[in-house]
Specification:
- The complex is a heterodimer of chains A (57) and B (678).
- Chain A is mostly helical.
- Chain A is built from 3 helices and no strands.
- The N and C termini of chain A lie far apart (37 Å).
- Chain B has 678 residues and is an all-alpha fold.
- In chain B, 73% of the residues lie in helices and 1% in strands.
- A two-stranded antiparallel ribbon of chain B has the order 1-2.
- Chain B starts with a helix and ends in a 22-residue tail after the last helix.
- The chains are: A mainly alpha (57), B mainly alpha (678).
- Chains A and B meet through helix 1, helix 2 and helix 3 of A and helix 4, helix 10, helix 13, helix 16 and helix 22 of B.
């Protein structure tokens, strides 16, 4: 996939607040520990722990 | 040289804006192009953003690019995630923009296009955007604490409890009024109902897709959902054209009420990934795409406004859409597009936990709200491109239309019944008369704009498809607010009950989940049901109640922000939040007083109940009871807000007279590890 389209899709995913495994990996790298969760487990945990986001009128 | 150029450019922008306002204000009789509305709005936003928001972030809050944000310090890869400002702008905007800025301005068009536009544009620059930005700044310096927590820590525990109760009450009224809008748009509309009903299985499929089948593939799940949604839209057309299926998907208002209450309950009880999140993703994509599309279409067409600048109802106060005069009711009705207390919950919720740099708060808090006001201006344009006769026939029940007939006749706002029938047939509906709530009128306005573009491009007008697309667009994100709101309300109730019985506070204990969800849906379900039964259409009395409640929540937010500014030893700048606060107190107290005690039965709850006493109407007893419930609700709102104001005022006096130290609970400075300019 061309990089520009990939980038646009990434922005859209972030805007709606979808799980972003890359962000988790970046965080682990910055925090200096290996990732505890693989992608599948991360996504599952993300969806299961997520509460409702306040939606405005 | 650059400085001179900048002065010249900003002087030109200001002059252009002033010219546009002058053109709007002096229009008498002739039609005005929507272009002037857009120019006036955009120039005012530009000046407000460039100068006022800069003043707030540099002088009042002194935001500092070298200071680490909560997202950086507490980064956990989940809620605390440093996010670039453009992405966060989209995220924040998607959270604050809902049905309010679309519906409020459509209803306020009853007064003509001028009062609503003026308040949208001036209100946002001096009030709404200021509230969103200041609360964001306050929360940003407190690790993303919520409005309630800040009220508790900076003012007092009583203030925190008051703020929380205010939020809960407002949530219930808000959901009821939004649900009423959906019910009015979908009743006796098999096409609309079929399309919206299809979103539930589509959401279930998407949820399974992105959590279990292909974990994390939100993009492809949303794409599949979007395609299915468009199929459902086209399928709805087929349903409406065939008698058997059409009858199966035709519901009365009462039946829809029961269905929507059941939906709210299940959305609150089921795990979020099953129903709530996939619908949320879908509606966010649709919302952003449609709003951009509408902006482009309006810019291409620059439609003429057929509604006059001011209608007779602005001064008479006998409007059939909602009762009351220009002051205070235009400020109550516009609600979210100019200032919305609800935004304080988003500005002290997810957004402050994601800011990468402190100064980004300016674009996200202030800029995001300017964008919402712009959506409101587009809604006014869409409503005012309608023939005023169509506008009033759609937004009022036959009973209210009858009462206002003489004024409408004199103003020329009447349209023959066969023209209304022809319009309904054109958009694939049986009738458009008496579809109160603003959403259908907006959909017809959007249909005219979108089909004008498809027609200009050489295609067919596709009016029926555009109308149901617009209805789907509105209903989809209204339902998203309903299910998210019910769930947030359920969490708040559980937290409150948890103080009494700790077990009730556990958000995963099923008896507590079911009980508190039931209490919340019954709360808004009651107001919804009373709106459905109201012979004047419900919106008439519920929308002002919601507007008052929402603006009162803004008072709570501004009181918290003022307290923090005073405690930051910047009392000389407290007018920034104090000015909109004083204005909102004047507006909401006048409106609340009139709703309770006005001697006009169309306006006041007490006089309305009195006018029904001894009447032969079989519904009289129930209507009188409803009036009393509305009266109590208005009284409770007013009392709660006055209490919070009194507590805040005491705190301000103590701090200003130095009887209490001016200490805030800001998180101490930590230097950022990001390189400058990174």
């Amino acid at each position: 996939m061309p990089r520009a389209i990939e980038r646009i899709l990434w922005v859209l995913r972030r805007i709606v607040g979808a799980p972003d495994y890359q962000a988790y990996l970046d965080h682990c790298r910055r925090a200096g520990h290996p990732p505890h969760l693989d992608e599948k487990a991360y996504v599952r945990e993300y969806f299961d722990q997520k509460g409702a986001r306040t939606r405005c009128c | 040289m650059r400085r001179i150029l900048s002065i010249v450019i900003w002087a030109a922008i200001s002059t252009l804006g002033a010219l546009a306002f002058a053109t709007l204000a002096w229009s008498r009789g002739e039609t005005v192009s929507a272009a002037w509305l857009l120019i006036a709005a955009v120039c005012t936003y530009a000046v407000g953003y460039r100068f006022y928001s800069k003043f707030i972030v540099t002088r009042v809050f002194a935001l500092d690019a070298t200071r680490a944000t909560p997202a950086e310090r507490l980064e956990n890869g989940r809620d605390f995630v440093p996010t670039g400002k453009w992405v966060l702008f989209g995220h924040h905007f998607a959270a604050i923009a809902g049905a309010g800025p679309l519906v409020g301005p459509v209803l306020a068009a009853q007064f003509g296009f001028l009062p609503g536009t003026l308040w949208l544009v001036i209100g946002v620059v001096l009030g709404g955007a200021v509230q969103d930005l200041t609360i964001l700044c306050c929360s940003l310096r407190r690790d993303g604490k919520s409005l309630g927590q800040m009220a508790k820590e900076e003012i007092s525990p009583a203030a925190g409890m008051t703020a929380m109760l205010a939020v809960l009450f407002i949530m219930i009224i808000l959901i009821a009024v939004l649900a009423l809008i959906v019910v009015n748009a979908l009743k006796a509309s098999p096409w609309g109902f079929f399309t919206i009903a299809c979103t539930i299985p589509i959401a279930l499929l998407m949820g399974w897709w992105m959590r279990t089948w292909r974990p994390g593939h939100v993009g492809e799940a949303s794409l599949a959902g979007g395609v299915l949604l468009l199929l459902a839209l086209v399928g709805g057309g087929w349903v409406s054209r065939h008698a058997g299926p059409a009858a199966a998907f035709t519901f009365t208002g009462t039946a829809l009420t029961a269905l929507i209450v059941a939906y709210g309950f299940f959305a609150s009880v089921l795990p979020v990934w099953m129903l709530l999140l996939p619908r949320d993703y879908l509606s966010t994509f649709l919302k952003i795409a449609t709003i951009l599309g509408l902006a482009v279409a309006i810019l291409i067409l620059l439609p003429p406004l057929r509604m006059p600048a001011m209608t007779p109802f602005a001064k008479l106060g006998e409007g059939p859409v909602f009762a009351g005069k220009f002051f205070p009711f235009v400020f109550i009705t516009i609600a979210c597009g100019a200032i919305s207390g609800f935004h304080a919950l988003v500005s002290s919720g997810t957004t402050p936990k994601m800011l990468r740099r402190e100064p980004d708060a300016r674009m996200i808090g202030y800029g995001g709200m300017l964008m919402e006001s712009f959506v409101g201006v587009m809604a006014i344009i869409a409503a005012c491109t309608l023939h005023p006769g169509v506008y009033f026939a759609m937004n009022t029940t036959p009973a209210a239309l009858q009462q206002a007939a003489p004024v409408l006749q004199r103003a020329g706002f009447v349209i023959p019944p066969d023209s209304m029938a022809a319009l309904a047939a054109e958009v694939g509906e049986k009738t458009l008369v008496g579809r109160a709530g603003g959403a259908p009128a907006l959909a017809v306005g959007m249909t005219q704009i979108f089909s004008g573009v498809t027609h200009a491009l050489g295609g067919q007008t596709l009016a029926a498809l555009w109308y149901h697309f617009a209805i789907m667009f509105e209903a989809l994100f209204i339902l998203t607010t309903i299910d998210a709101g019910t769930r947030v309300g359920r969490f708040m109730l559980q937290e409150l009950l948890g103080h009494v019985w700790p077990r009730m506070g556990r958000t995963s204990w099923y008896p507590s989940v079911i009980l508190s969800s039931l209490v919340i849906v019954c709360g808004w379900g009651y107001f919804l049901y009373q709106g459905i039964l109201d012979p004047l259409g419900g919106i008439n009395s519920l929308w002002p109640l919601f507007g008052i409640a929402n603006q009162m929540l803004a008072i709570v937010a501004l009181a918290v922000a003022t307290t923090i500014i005073i405690k930051m030893n910047r009392a000389r700048f407290a007018w920034v939040t104090l000015a909109p606060l004083v204005w909102l107190v004047a507006v909401t107290m006048t409106a609340g007083f009139e709703k309770m005690f006005s001697s006009d039965p169309k306006l006041g709850f007490i006089s309305h109940a009195a006018s029904l006493a001894g009447s032969a109407d079989p519904n009289a007893a129930r209507l009188i009871f409803n009036d009393h419930v509305n009266l109590v609700a208005t009284f409770v709102f007013t009392a709660v807000v006055l209490l919070l104001l009194a507590i805040s005022l005491k705190e301000w006096i103590l701090v200003l007279s130095r009887r209490k130290p001016a200490a805030v609970s800001e998180v101490p400075y930590v230097a950022t590890s990001y390189a400058a300019g990174d």
